[in-house]
Amino acid sequence: MYADIIVDISQEQLDKTFQYRIPPELENEVQIGVMVQIPFGRGNRLLTGYVIGIGSTPKIPAEKIKDIDSVSQSGIQAVGRMIQLAAWLKKQYGSTMNQALKTVLPVKEKVRQKEKKTVRLAVSKEKAAEYLALYEKKNAVARVRLLKALCKTDENGLDTAVLKEQYQITTQTIQALEKQNVITVETQELYRNPVRETAPGQERLILNEAQQKAVTQFCTQFDAGERKPWLLYGVTGSGKTLCYIEMIQHVTAQGKQAIVLIPEIALTFQTVQRFYRRFGSQVSVLHSRMSKGERYDQFLRAMRGEISIMIGPRSALFTPFTNLGLIIMDEEHEGAYKSEQAPRYHARETAVHIAKMCGAGVVFGSATPSVEAFYRAKKNEYTLLELPRRASGTLPAVYTVDLREELKCGNRSVFSRRLQELIQRRLAAKEQIILFLNKRGYAGFVSCRMCGHVLKCPHCDISLTEHKNGKMVCHYCGYEQPRVTRCPVCGSKYISGFRAGTQQIEEAVKKMYPQARVLRMDMDTTAGKEGHEKILAAFSAQEADILVGTQMIVKGHDFPNVTLVGVLAADMSLYAGDYRAAERTFELLTQAAGRAGRGRQAGEVVIQTYTPQHYSIAAAAAQNYEQFYEEEIAFRSIMDYPPVCNMLMVTLSSKNEEQLLAACTFLKEVIPEWKKEQVRITGPVAAGVYKRNDYYNQVVYLKATAYEKLTACKDRLETLCRENTLFRSIGLQFDFN
DNA sequence: AGCACGCCGACT
DNA sequence: GTCGGCGTGCTC
Question: How far is CA A504 from the centre of its chain?
Fold first, then answer.
């Protein structure tokens, strides 16, 4: 048997696997994730490596393969565990081992950032000049370059990175001169602490009855060794964060560490601040804007036990704590918890798996739990903890407005009469308003009003979007072309963008309420580094009366002075063409409604819609999650969608359309025999976006009750792709559920 | 990263 | 000829 071993993940040139023979006496001990000592290089110096795969076929001539020296039992277990986790990700979600390793260990790259090596002269300038003359005479050009560079700079010396890049100095030269005591090399480890210093322990902590009950139940069960995940279902504004804080307090007091997952850090900085205030420097944050080096620093700090709480997006799951006790996943229903790249893992399942590996607990929290999570809670796979009431104040009153009726009555504006009236009243009362457009910013296709021709991207087969700079852009591949003034098909002048973005709403508001101060939040206005925070802070400081925005304004913010939320077109997300559209609509409406009336004054919500009878809108208006859930789970059962079953979408892509179609025809013949194994198969069919980035795409959908059936199918497809020449040019992508 | 190999100018 | 130094490529 042979083992694939990764030698040193910190070195880019060694970022590949090496195959070693497993001696018979070690066969039981060598497993994926285990740390081993291996002879490496000509000198056979013993290095530490990690086993990332085991197989029986040598990939290079067998005589070149050396034996594994020994298995190290000790060492940093956390890293081994991460590698085991990578193997699990690969198996569960489909990817290469390399991709899986890269998601789990954002380590490599820029290790030199962690160690700064500074080179200084160890002798006087005069002496240095002597050496310089000597080396010049000896034609030791590299040493001359190095000395000249050092003489030019002051006693602060030069960084090795600078020397290597600007002066083409190699490590050997530096080492040689160091040996001769001409220069000194000083290494210092540096890492930045992203935590802004805030005084800990100031927050007043009074749990209300429901919160106390939930926290106590968690603590009792946790201490009793119960490790079934908990689902904290609490309506908007019920104080889930406070519960998390207490739970973490309980677990960290036992010397364990905690990971707090949040969907997107920029959108939840208020939450993060609360953790700082409570736990101070024990907390670290993983920022999406952080460089790889900075992230690596945070992982190091976690591994060394310098911090005990890590807050961050889904990648924070892979923090190598040595004694992990608790994983908290806030806003569990968020789409951001699913990775967009292979391995396309979902943080929910991965968190459960990690917790199992470490003996830790998992707490999911949401005001609108995903159908999956609630389904599991119903099946008693999760323990349900409830916070049925707001911590302060009551839930807002919700009105649904039928836009068809408005139109019949001659109201053509984007605001219904109800909404207009309420806005007027809030402005007078100096209270704040949020207007939510259920759609991303300026986007809109460009069509000819005469012939109906729609402009499309030549590479991607999807409609182009008009941008404010006058260009037309493809969102998938970035293709750009100038705006057209005449229809390329019929020559008509009546061609223009279909505009219904936040910018239009903002203009309409300004026209109708000239006295109001308006802020807009969408992709355009948040482009800057801290765009989100700036706008949110300004609105929070009541520098504006009305905030207009898309999805991003409704997520988890706390503005006590907002008493009116207007949802301008609730149906916009209803026909997105995937089985989660209704769920997403309900979620957005509920979350949006949850922004109103969080302070002393009661709040009101207006939902404008063309389909008030749709169950997701009706349930959101009634603010009744269970009502929605019952309807939705019935729909999923009838249609056979997750969570009732498991689903796998396989995308086959190729630049060569013929080969792609040939492979699909082959699949159509082969696949039916898989159906014996209780796997339901549709396709292959052309993907929604058939051509993207010059790649043609076909998709196959597989459904099965047991998840393992699908992973088995995934493996079969992978082998097929590797071994069958028909699949030479074809790439596979897997997407579960 | 560390190590060896091959190349090149300088020195005895 | 030989020696010291440099750059490159490989490591299962």
Answer: 30
